[in-house]
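Supplementary material to the annual report.
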Amino acid sequence: MATKPKLYYFRDRGRMESIRWLLAAAGVEFEEEFFETREQYEKLQKDGRLLFGQVPLVEIDGMALTQTRAILSYLAAKYDLYGKDPKERLRIDMYTDGTLDLMTMIMVRAFKPPAEKEETLTSVVKSAKTRYFPVFEKILKDHGEDFLVGNKLSWADIQLLEAILMVEELDASVLSDFPLLKAFKTRISNIPTIKKFLQPGSQRKPPPDSQYVALVRKILQF
Amino acid sequence: MAARPKLHYPNGRGRMESVRWLLAAAGVEFDEEFLETKEQLQKLQDGNHLLFQQVPMVEIDGMKLVQTRSILHYIAEKHNLFGRDLKERTLIDMYVEGTLDLLELIIMHPFLKPDDQQREVVNMAQKAIIRYFPVFEKILRGHGQSFLVGNQLSLADIILLQTILALEEKIPNILSAFPFLQEYTVKISNIPTIKRFLEPGSKKKPPPDEIYVRTVYNVFMP
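Predicted assembly:
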């Protein structure tokens, strides 16, 4: 019997959240080990399981995977969420790369001083509304299908839903000009595995708070 | 006969240089359209040629590819430079992601304030010597092969060589503690397609200078 994948990270979203989403959407149960002290983190580094000394780390199929995008690509391929050929894979890559750029803006915002936080919120919402969401609205409009690529659920859909929900936490009205994305959000949220992940008690993590930021700064020493 | 790929970017390294390296290593001839003015960028954006309004953009196989990583993955896979199976592909992906993190410091360097530039060279050198080079030295020492993954040339070797040579331009003795990487650098540089790319007259771009920095500001600043 295969062991469950094991995730090593802080008890928060950060760069690991997209990985949790993908595993959950694929219906894969996983375990988590959370860093609470610098010593825990240093032990992992000394054990040599962190390729470049960094997390996220996912132990799966006998491998110690690091580098968020590499982990996500592996999981997408393994769980048949990566399209059926190189051209579909390419489109999924481009769409997820774009949404990851947007989500990284949100993630680093947690670590900015209060004055900059407000400025970042404005620019994130603007980016979402002018650069990213119009693209996906158009893609859905042009093919009229339920999913972004190949008429089938893929990593691109899961990543986009995650991004939409994160931006809505900053500005609840962000989808007001995007009717197809609104319908997409409802539709993807209702997929049973994803619906379960969105309910209380799942392994989905809440938005970052000041305690999380302080802990991360202490453990990663910056 | 397939049209040659066409690259859209300013006339300098930046994020497109990795793509130039990859195409050259794969023996693929390509054309370039250099962005020199804001108006040229605007024309690409208004014509809906840039998925997220950004470059790099590569026209290839009837498509307009954006997002550096997506471009690199597509071209690598097409030319058998992305491993033989999912496990090799994932290893290559992890190594490339790490190296791109290091390369990012080099890409951003010319745009730092002059006072910060010297300090950043020290930071780059430390990261290379402490975090990245020991990993690759260990891999090469461990399997004793000429290439990082699967005993054949891959995207991981090409991006690593690009990064090593770019660092050597700023810190000439940066490989002094890494005998396996020194030998590796020579071997990979001597692969015929790569050797040709390293000779004068190729499409390899020179280190960024003031003209390049000014062009980038002209094209991209609002």
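DSSP finds nine helices and four strands in chain B.
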